[in-house]
From TrEMBL:
It comes from the Bacteria. PANTHER family: PERIPLASMIC SIGNAL SENSOR AND SIGMA FACTOR ACTIVATOR FECR-RELATED, PROTEIN FECR. Residues 183-268 form the FecR protein domain. This is FecR family protein.
Amino acid sequence: MKWEEIYDRSRMVVDKAMGHLLAEVKDVEEDKDGIVEKLLDAEYVSEKLEKRKYYSGKDAFLRMKRQVERKKRVRMIMWVASAACVAIVCIILLQWKQVEVLLPGTNMIAKQENILPAEMKAILVRADGEQVVLGKGHCSLEEAGNVLIAADSTGLEYNRLKRTMPDTTVFNQLIVPRGGLYLLVLSDGTRVWMNSDSHLKYPIMFAGDKREVILSGEAYFDVVKDESAPFIVKTESGKIEVLGTEFNIKCYSDESALVTTLVNGKVKFDDGMNPSVILKPEEQLIFEKENCQSIVRKINVNHYIGWKDNRLSFQGERLDMIMKTLSRWYNVEVVFEDSTLKALEFSGNLDKFTNIQEFLSLFELGVNVKFEIKDRTVYIRKGN
C-alpha cells in the first residue's frame, strides 16, 4: 500500500469517526477555542502532526498546568479524539501488515515454521540410572568420591572437592538430543563441546595411568595436558589418543566415515587393524568404515569446528551430508523428492543464524533447488 493511499484512507476514516464523536458530545458547552472545527479540518490536523516533530514535553507540561482549570472540557474532547485517531492508525497499520504477509515472495514458511538452531540442553544419566534434564536452570549435585557437579546455562562442570581415592567404575553419561548442544568440563579440567545427537560416557573422576571416555556423535575436545595419563576417546570405529591438544571427532553411527580434525597438538588414531596414524595440526583424518581405510588431508579447521561457536560452515560438501547436519542441528526430518539433488555441492559460512529458512534460502540462489518446510520436515525438490 502506498503512502498516498494510507493518507486518503486515514482522512476518510478520521472524518467518519469525528462525525460519530461530535454526535455524542453535541450537548457540550460552546467550544471556546473552536477546537472541534479544527479537528474537522484535515489540513489543520496534518499541519499539527508535522509540528509534532518539534514537540517539547517540558513546555507542554507548563502550558497545561496554567490552563488546567480553564480547558477541562476541551481537553476531554481532545483526549477522546486523540485516542480515536491512535486506534484508527493502529487498525490501518495492522491491516497493512496483514496484506504484507500475504504478498507474493514473502517468507510465510519461516513465520509459520519458526525452527531455530541448537540450544544449550542435554540429559545427564547418572551411574544409578537417575536422569537429570539440563538446560538454562541451575542445579548442583554430589557424586561419589566427593565430586561436586554444577550445571547451568553455560554447561556442566565436575569439581573434585578434595583428593580421595576415586571409584573408577562410577561412570556418567551425557546425552545431547537433536536440536541441542552442550559444554562438559570433566574432573581433570578437559572441556568437551558436544554437538546435537551425541552421547559421551565418562568417569566422574579420572584415575590410574589413562583418561578414557566413549563417544558416539560429534564433540570438540580441549584436553588438559597430563603426560602421566594420556587422554583416549573410544568410538565404534577406533580410538584417538592424545596428551594435550584440541581436536574434533565426528563419528555418527549413520555416517559412512569417522572424521578427526586436529587444531593443535598431536593425536594418534588406531582402528585396531591397520598401523596407527598420527595427525599434525590442521590435518584431518577420514576413516572409511566400509573398507577400513584412512585418508589424511590438509584442511582449514574453521570449516569443521565452527559449530561449537554457533556457526555452520561447509566447503564443497554434498547436499545430502549438509542436510544430515542441519537435521540434527534443527531437529527436523529431511525428504529428498529427487535423489539427483543429493550430489549437489555447496560452500558457505553463516554466523549467528537463527531460523533454518535463512540458511536454506542461500542454497536456492543460482541453483535449481527448492526447499519447503512442513511440520518440521524439509522437502527438497527441483525448482521451477
